[in-house]
Specification:
Blueprint: E1 13-17, H1 39-49, E2 54-57, H2 62-69, E3 76-78, E4 83-85, E5 94-96, H3 102-117, E6 122-125, E7 130-133, H4 141-155, E8 162-167, E9 170-175, H5 180-188, E10 197-202, H6 208-216, E11 220-224, E12 233-235, H7 238-250
Parallel strand pairs: 1-2, 1-10, 2-3, 10-11, 11-12
Antiparallel strand pairs: 3-4, 4-5, 6-7, 7-9, 8-9
Helix pairs in contact: 1-7, 3-4, 5-6
Length: about 250
């Protein structure tokens, strides 16, 4: 994707954005990221120009996205869609799936000894899931994958309630049936997104299901960075994509 490609029509497009690795370059820890310069202003302009058809679809909880994008508030699918806020105000109603499941606490207790025993691991507790980050210790990938697999298998003994979601230097545990593709489909069912062609940009394995939905609807899918992807277009970096986004809103 570049300036040579035709720009999407703002009045006919529903825009969906991943956050980490898309609007904010990746950082050693989740709290250390910084939104790319100019991204918030561009999103604010896009929100106005599209009549509000702009949403964030992220693995992060909604309250974290709000903190990073303040003072801008957008519709958000957080925790891969386990929580959804369709309104564009911070106090709009949030619908949640899988929050408060006691099995999450049991899995957290099981994972903590591994994280404590290995330097470089970080256990992130989310409302409807868990994430084990190994960015600071990439050599521990196989250990993290094995232990999280065992923990999820035990939690699913009675029913398939949780699934593993690999990502960039992270393995996440999330509710079954929740993914970014489904979140985008839910947004597209209602105004102001309904009737528009979807545009989705992301950088990770977690975004591939979103790309699949967008491609099936004849929309525009964009992958940030390297790696195999079904996305139809690609940008080399967050900075390159934000530069393109600024050009889009300036048209």
């Amino acid at each position: 994707m570049s300036a040579s490609h035709s720009l999407p029509r703002l009045n006919e497009t529903a825009f969906f954005f991943d956050f980490d690795g898309t609007l904010a370059p990746l950082a050693p820890t989740p709290d250390a990221v910084q939104v790319a310069e100019g991204a918030i202003a561009a999103l604010q302009t896009l929100q106005t120009a599209t009549g509000g058809a702009v949403a964030i679809v992220s693995g992060r909880p909604i309250h974290e996205i709000d903190r990073f994008l303040a003072p801008l508030a957008l519709p958000i699918a957080g925790s891969h869609g386990a929580e959804m806020r369709r309104g564009a105000q911070a106090d709009s109603e949030v619908v949640r799936i899988g929050f408060g499941d006691p099995r999450l606490e049991a899995m957290r207790v099981q994972l903590e000894p591994m994280v404590a025993a290995q330097n470089g691991l970080l256990l992130e507790v989310k409302g409807a899931g868990l994430a084990v980050h190994y960015r600071a210790a990439p050599q521990l990938q196989s250990l993290v994958e094995q232990v999280t697999t065992d923990v999820v298998r035990a939690a699913n003994a009675a029913e398939e309630a949780f699934v593993l979601q690999p990502g960039k230097m992270v393995v996440e545990i999330k509710p079954h049936g929740v993914d970014k593709g489904r979140a985008i489909e839910l947004f597209l069912e209602q105004a102001p997104f309904a009737g528009r062609k979807p545009f989705f940009v992301g950088d990770d394995l977690t975004d591939e299901k979103g790309f699949k939905v967008v491609n099936a609807r004849g929309g525009l899918s964009v992958k940030i960075g390297e790696g195999d992807s079904i996305a139809g277009h690609r940008e080399p970096s967050v900075e390159a994509f934000v530069a393109w986004l600024k050009q889009l809103v300036d048209q």
